[in-house]
Design goal:
The chain is an alpha+beta fold. Among the domains are: 6-68 and 146-270 and 312-328, BirA Bifunctional Protein, domain 2; 356-453, Anticodon-binding domain (Rossmann fold), CATH 3.40.50.800. The chain has helices at residues 6-15, 37-56, 72-77, 80-83, 147-152, 154-161, 206-223, 271-275, 321-332, 368-382, 397-407, 417-421, 445-453; strands at residues 19-21, 33-35, 61-64, 69-70, 85-90, 97-99, 120-123, 126-129, 139-142, 167-176, 191-201, 231-236, 247-255, 258-269, 301-303, 308-310, 313-320, 333-339, 342-347, 358-362, 389-391, 411-415, 426-431, 437-441. The strands form 7 sheets. It has a 7-stranded mixed β-sheet. Strands 21-20-22-23-24 form a 5-stranded mixed β-sheet, sandwiched between helices. Helix 2 packs across helix 9. The two termini are 34 Å apart. The model has no long low-confidence stretch (mean pLDDT 96). The structure holds glycyl-adenosine-5'-phosphate (GAP). Glycyl-adenosine-5'-phosphate binds next to strand 11, strand 14, strand 17 and helix 9.
């Protein structure tokens, strides 16, 4: 369990515009959240860091952005229609519903009654009618994982990029699950984003690649700011494995509510490509597949060494963006005692993740010459491409520092009378973590900031 409480995070997120309950003015939509002005920046920064490390910094991964609306057949042959469910229990006393695996001592978590129904399977996918005729047959699903389109588009990507094994396809996007009991703030929600990589390998090399990706992903989270001692790679076995997986490591993090899954790294074998493939008997498919009567595709790749077509195995690191946001906020949140009855809340996010990179603050509100310089500084810093640079024309430096500490802004630049009156012009720059201020010549500011971020 983390020292940071969920209440501290929920309060900060609402107060500073990071995360809001969806449809709050109508009582809220359970398990659905909106990201506010700073939340959208934080989320984008996490997604950009993931994309950069997967697609730009490596030479073996392509990107994809596929549709959310999913053809029914995709989710039939993937096994989701039959098996993507959780066991549900009804409380006959208070009429609430719960996940059977969340029931303790056979008692309803809401009212404590032991008068519960037997568990029955509840499919988690959101079904939606497609087209103007809603006669119950024209339906599809909101995707429950982004992965399926990576499999169904496998041949198009291979044919258009001439990729050879091993290689991966990465995707970031929304997924939807009608969770029986959404809970723990943004940890378990009904609409969320996933950052998924499907890494295709030769059968037989899969176990080695599985281990490699577990370590890659652990290291990546540490690079984003999570402490290694707060992460655990849990080996999932037996009935706890998803229907498509031969093996899985759950990367767990010490969230405020306990140690829980942040990311799964699964070995999905040839299950998905095999299931979506026509003429399965032409291939050596090791996974149990449904005979496919509907697909026209052969989702295979040429094995040049053995001169034959094979269906690759796939290793899948799949992370939830919301869980990433929650973990990184948990880790970064600190309440510091400054002595003499003073304290501050500070978000010690890594600089590349901070929603606001630099805040430019005028010493005197609406002072024409000072504001002119502030605008000029903001313009020059934006050109560095480091992300959001804010300008806070409040005239209250102390409050501006506190606010920027709480949202994790690494640097505050103050423009004062010395800036506009003395030559060479200079500003003060305050470091979020040390709270030290130093004076720096305006001409050297861009070089300093560039050095901090790029
Ligand atoms: N494609 C594989 C897959 O979807 P998963 O373990 O079901 O595997 C992967 O989900 C990740 O997606 C999880 O580790 C978690 O971070 C995130 N996730 C899954 N369900 C979620 C939910 N209801 N709310 C928030 N994040 C969720």
């Amino acid at each position: 369990m983390s020292a940071t409480s969920m209440e501290q995070l929920i309060s900060l997120c609402k107060r500073r515009g990071i995360i809001f309950q969806s449809a709050e003015i109508y009582g809220g939509l359970q398990g659905v959240y909106d990201f506010g002005p700073l939340g959208v920046e934080l989320k984008n920064n996490i997604k950009n860091a993931w994309w950069k490390s997967m697609v730009y910094e490596r030479d073996d991964i392509e990107g994809l952005d596929s549709a959310i609306l999913t053809h029914r057949k995709v989710l039939q042959y993937s096994g989701h229609e039959d098996t993507f469910s959780d066991p549900l229990v009804d409380c006959k006393q208070c009429k609430t519903r719960h996940r059977a695996d969340h029931i303790k001592d056979n008692k309803c978590p809401n009212c404590g009654s032991a008068d519960l129904t037997e568990p029955r399977e509840f499919n988690l996918m959101f079904k939606t009618s497609i087209g103007p005729v809603d006669d119950g047959t024209n339906f599809g699903y909101l995707r429950p994982e982004t992965a399926q389109a990576i499999f169904t588009q496998f041949r198009n990507v291979v044919d258009s990029t001439a990729r050879k094994l091993p290689f991966g396809i990465a995707q970031i996007g929304k997924s939807f699950r009608n969770e029986i009991t959404p809970r723990n703030f943004i940890f378990r929600v009904r609409e969320f984003e996933q950052m998924e990589l499907e890494y295709f390998v030769e059968p037989g090399t899969d176990e080695e690649w599985h281990e490699t990706w577990k370590n890659e992903r652990l290291n990546w989270w540490v690079e984003q700011g999570l402490k290694r001692e707060n992460l655990v790679a849990q080996d999932i076995e037996g009935d706890d494995l998803a229907h498509y997986a031969k093996a899985c490591f759950d990367i767990e993090y010490k969230f405020p509510h306990g140690l829980e899954e942040l990311e799964g790294v699964a070995n999905r074998t040839d299950y998905d490509l095999g299931n979506h493939t026509k003429a399965q008997n032409e291939f050596e498919i090791t996974a149990h597949v449904h005979p496919n009567k509907d697909s026209n595709a052969k989702l295979c790749i040429r094995d040049e060494v053995n001169n034959k077509w094979i269906i690759p195995y796939v290793i899948e690191p799949s992370a939830g963006v919301e869980r990433g946001v929650l973990a990184l906020l948990t880790e970064a949140y600190e309440e510091e005692d400054l002595g003499e009855g003073n304290s501050r809340i500070v978000l010690k996010l890594k600089k590349h993740l901070a929603p606001v990179k630099v805040s430019v603050i005028p010493l005197k509100k609406n002072h024409e010459k000072i504001m002119e310089t502030c605008f000029e500084i903001k313009k020059r810093l934006l050109k560095l491409g480091i992300g959001r640079v804010s300008l806070e024309n409040t005239g209250n430096i102390g409050k501006a520092y506190r606010r920027n500490d709480e949202i994790g802004t690494p640097f505050c630049i103050t423009v004062d009378f010395e800036t506009i009156e003395k030559t060479p012009a200079s500003v003060t720059i305050r470091d979020r973590d040390t709270m030290q201020q130093e004076r720096i010549e305006l001409d050297k500011l861009e070089e300093f900031i560039r050095g901090q971020f790029i």
